[in-house]
Amino acid sequence: MTQRFPIPRYPTGWFQVCWSDELKVKEAKPLQAFGRDLVMFRTESGEARVLDAYCPHMGAHLGHGGVVEGESVKCPFHAWQFDGTGKCTDLPYANKIPAKAEIKAWHVHEHSGLVLVWHDIDDRPPLWHTPEFPELTSDDWSEPVRRTWRFRSHNQEMGENVVDIAHFKYLHGMLQVPPAVAEGREHIFHMETPTYMKSGHGDTEGTLVTNSYGFGVTTNHFEGFVGTLCVGNVIAVDDDFVEVRFTFAVKKMGGADVTRGIGKAFVAEISRQLEQDIPVWENKIYLEKPIFCDGDGPFTKYRRWGKQFFPDWYRKRALEAWRSEREARPEFRPTEK
Ligand code: FES
Ligand SMILES: [Fe+2]
Q: Which of 91-100, 109-118, 268-277, 321-330 has the weakest average pLDDT?
């Protein structure tokens, strides 16, 4: 494995694995996340559950042919059943269930039409929850529109996009981006930027409020003449790739056509910006010590805040691996004078 970043790969936090309606009642399917093979299933009572994929009996993948029965998923190989806590609940051809017949269960939080899974490299239970996003299910807001992307990047690299005020002008072509107010509050990084938005009816002035709940979930709320919300989710699926899911909604105004027009322009604008970022992210390197100038956004504040999402031992290990890899590459060796 190559260590592309001087920071660890899989942060602590909540990460979206699908939208609620992508996991039907009694459905079981494979899931790749955090460099692991998992299975997600929805029980008969409607609970979304996530377990490690491989059956502890003889290693079958529960997401390939597993069947949901009641509150458990049944292995396709010899019919052992596991509930949402990972406990073996039925073993049809034995008198006694072996004590070790258990799989790691993942914490799932489903709300606002999103299925979120908690990841922590040290296996701590959830340290916080994300708030619900009532706009995504409200009659006063448009039916949410979704987009997904998959490319080579890192949660923190992408998170820093929010504080990178200079790139909004030079990469995304915005006329100007006034200085933002930013603060890290526990697991929430909050930022407010007076800005404008292309609404489909010209540009409207307003305030963009961005809240990042760890590195997984970020909301962009624009409030002005129009109201829009983009809930962005980034999950590291393996050592190279991330998956991005955006859920967009627009506050209804002036009839369905107007709302639809604003919504379309909004989705197109945010998607355009992301697609401009992707080739930069896929090809850049992440510098441990960039040369920041006084016009750059509050990166230092953001990076300090972000440290909490990786335990110290994990950060140390990643940094050492990254440094030794760089030392082996001539282009990164200090030049001799
Ligand atoms: S491998 Fe799953 S029950 Fe045997
Ligand atoms: Fe960007």
A: 321-330
Q: Give the pTM.
A: 0.94
**What separation in Å is there between the alpha carbon of 226 and the centre of ligand 2?**
22
The secondary structure of the chain in percent helix, strand, coil, rounded to multiples of 5, reads 25, 35, 40
Q: Answer yes or no: do 185 and 285 share one domain.
A: yes
Q: Are residues 186 and 295 in the same domain?
A: yes
Instruction: Based on the fold, state whether residues 50 and 187 are members of the same structural domain.
Output: no
Q: Which residues lie at CB < 5 A from ion ligand 2? A: 161, 277
d(CA 60, CA 111): 30
Question: Taking 90 as the threshold, does the pLDDT of residue 326 lie above it?
Answer: no
Residues 145 and 108 in one domain: no
Q: Say what the alpha-carbon torsion angle 27, 28, 32, 37 is, to the nearest 10 degrees.
A: 170
Chain segment 201-234, per-residue pLDDT in tens: 566 788 889 999 999 999 999 988 788 999 999 9
- My answer on whether 51 and 91 are in the same domain is yes
User: Is 225 touching ligand 1 by the criterion CB < 6 Å?
Assistant: no
Q: Which atom of ligand 1 is nearest to the CA of 59?
A: 1
* Rounded Cα gap, residues 173 and 167, in angstroms: 8
Of residues 12 and 263, more confidence is placed in 12
C-beta of 38 in contact with ligand 1 (< 6 A) = no
| CATH number, position 242 | 3.90.380.10
